[in-house]
Design goal:
Length: about 140
């Protein structure tokens, strides 16, 4: 099974993304706590695309694909923005206090904690971030 949603690069589109994930959870009988974690991870990734992938005020889109493959939910976010590989970002040092910690990196840390696999590819001028979560 595969479902897709196309979002514009506007923060208010996160509401549509949330509704998309809620609908998947219901249709595919995904546990509410897993749906919540998917919401957090996808919102973080989509926000980064919306805020940083394109020049300000440039209207673009991002494609979110969800596919159920046996017991794995595979989520792909694809955009034509600036190349950015979040898998190459160093792990955030969560042992540091908030004052000592550099700005940024906690969102990627969160995504890595919530998902079983995070992979990146640059394909035909597009960023493709693939998140996988095992669901039972």
């Amino acid at each position: 099974m595969k479902k897709q949603i196309i979002l514009e690069n506007r923060i208010d589109e996160l509401v549509r993304l949330s509704a998309f994930i809620d609908a998947l959870g219901e249709e595919w009988s995904i546990a509410p706590e897993v749906v919540f974690n998917l919401q957090l991870a996808l919102e973080e990734c989509a926000t980064n695309v919306i805020m940083y992938a394109y020049p300000p005020e440039e209207k673009q889109t991002l494609l979110v694909t969800a596919e159920l493959v046996e017991h794995d939910l595979v989520l792909t976010i694809e955009d034509g923005g600036l190349p950015f590989d979040p898998t190459q970002v160093a792990e955030a040092d969560t042992t540091l206090s908030a004052e000592e910690r550099p700005i940024g990196g906690l969102g990627i840390f969160l995504v890595r904690q919530l998902m079983d696999t995070v992979a990146y590819q640059r394909v035909e001028g597009k960023n493709r971030l693939t998140l996988m979560k095992r669901i039972n």
